[in-house]
Amino acid sequence: MAATPSPRAYSKVQIGLHWLIALLIGLNYIFSESIEEAFRAVMSGAPVPEGAPGLHAPIGIAVLVLTLIRLVVRRVQGVPPPLVSDKPLMDKLGQWAHSALYGLAILVPLLGMMAWGGGIGIAGGAHGLAVNLLVAIAFVHAAAAIFHQYVLRDGMLNRITRGN
Ligand code: HEM
């Protein structure tokens, strides 16, 4: 198999996918009430409320598909080498956070599909836990990016906005 290239910057496609996925995750996190209500109704045998569960499931599936596409693009185009600071442990944690975000952006929709499609209550519980972990890691990840940009002044945020 050909080696993954090592470009100088994230491509426009990678940047677009990063922000689109972040937006969709944010939307589904904020607007989850209707699916929670609908799932409670399904599990208790009650009728599903009118209009529920809205766009939660299609948005979740979009996150899954876009994340898989993003991983393929990453494999084909490669990513720029990580920024190196004088704190190797912090750099490592940053890279683990990226891996965890990819993994959770796949796991969370899969658990949601198992819960909603298969009526599996425990998958619904795991979906809720996993999404909270995803959002917590994304929050720390975003805070770290802002710290890099404005305190360390190493231009990290520019890498995923302007692509340089
Ligand atoms: C406001 C929120 C966010 C900010 C400010 C932000 C910022 C950044 C920055 C600056 C990078 C580039 C890091 C580098 O060049 O070393 C990056 C990469 C990344 N971000 Fe975010 N991000 C945000 C939200 C998210 C969310 C919600 C996810 C969830 C999927 C996510 C997943 C990733 C991943 C997986 C990478 C690594 C890309 C790669 O190298 O393959 N980000 N982000």
Automatic annotation (TrEMBL):
<keyword id="KW-0813">Transport</keyword>
<dbReference type="InterPro" id="IPR052168">
    <property type="entry name" value="Cytochrome_b561_oxidase"/>
</dbReference>
<dbReference type="Pfam" id="PF01292">
    <property type="entry name" value="Ni_hydr_CYTB"/>
</dbReference>
<keyword id="KW-0249">Electron transport</keyword>
<dbReference type="GO" id="GO:0009055">
    <property type="term" value="F:electron transfer activity"/>
</dbReference>
<keyword id="KW-0408">Iron</keyword>
<keyword id="KW-0472">Membrane</keyword>
<feature type="transmembrane region" description="Helical">
    <location>
        <begin position="12"/>
        <end position="31"/>
    </location>
</feature>
<dbReference type="GO" id="GO:0020037">
    <property type="term" value="F:heme binding"/>
</dbReference>
<feature type="transmembrane region" description="Helical">
    <location>
        <begin position="100"/>
        <end position="123"/>
    </location>
</feature>
<dbReference type="GO" id="GO:0005886">
    <property type="term" value="C:plasma membrane"/>
</dbReference>
<dbReference type="GO" id="GO:0022904">
    <property type="term" value="P:respiratory electron transport chain"/>
</dbReference>
<comment type="similarity">
    <text>Belongs to the cytochrome b561 family.</text>
</comment>
<dbReference type="InterPro" id="IPR011577">
    <property type="entry name" value="Cyt_b561_bac/Ni-Hgenase"/>
</dbReference>
<feature type="transmembrane region" description="Helical">
    <location>
        <begin position="51"/>
        <end position="73"/>
    </location>
</feature>
<keyword id="KW-0479">Metal-binding</keyword>
<dbReference type="GO" id="GO:0046872">
    <property type="term" value="F:metal ion binding"/>
</dbReference>
<protein>
    <submittedName>
        <fullName>Cytochrome B561</fullName>
    </submittedName>
</protein>
<keyword id="KW-0812">Transmembrane</keyword>
<dbReference type="InterPro" id="IPR016174">
    <property type="entry name" value="Di-haem_cyt_TM"/>
</dbReference>
<keyword id="KW-0349">Heme</keyword>
<keyword id="KW-1003">Cell membrane</keyword>
<feature type="domain" description="Cytochrome b561 bacterial/Ni-hydrogenase">
    <location>
        <begin position="10"/>
        <end position="163"/>
    </location>
</feature>
<feature type="transmembrane region" description="Helical">
    <location>
        <begin position="129"/>
        <end position="152"/>
    </location>
</feature>
<keyword id="KW-1133">Transmembrane helix</keyword>
